[in-house]
Amino acid sequence: FEFVYNYLYLANLRANWDEVKRQAEKAPQPEARRYVLPLSIDKADTGKNLVTLPYTTATATLRSDETIWLEPEVIFSGPRHAFEFPQINYKKYCGKPYTYTYGLGLNHFVPDRLCKLNVKTKETWVWQEPDAYPSEPIFVSHPDALEEDDG
Fold first, then answer.
1. What Pfam families does the record tag this protein with (predicted)?
2. Distance between CA 25 and CA 147 in Å, rounded?
């Protein structure tokens, strides 16, 4: 809490960069996770995993008190390699199955790369250049796009 609200002021970043990096090492490591929420529930399934999708290891277990316990599938995690502000090709894939998501990569809480993640295979691609600090990605499709990630 203190790190995020105190150290990330521009004045602190400029004045205490080494201290910011030391504190960032203590901060929680962000992950991209997939949760699956079951839409249909039968009380007879108490204690069973309600997720039947073949492409995920996420689980949803109905408990005896009629609550559902969700366990995510981690689809992206790496030491000092965050994946923030995820975006997809919303124009064509909003509410539909998709394969690619794009995110802002951070190292020590400083955005210094753009990442592309295949949410099915977990393969990643990274764009990064020295002294380049991108903002969150926004997918812009090619006018004649044939593939989901053509943009």
1. RPE65 (PF03055)
2. 39
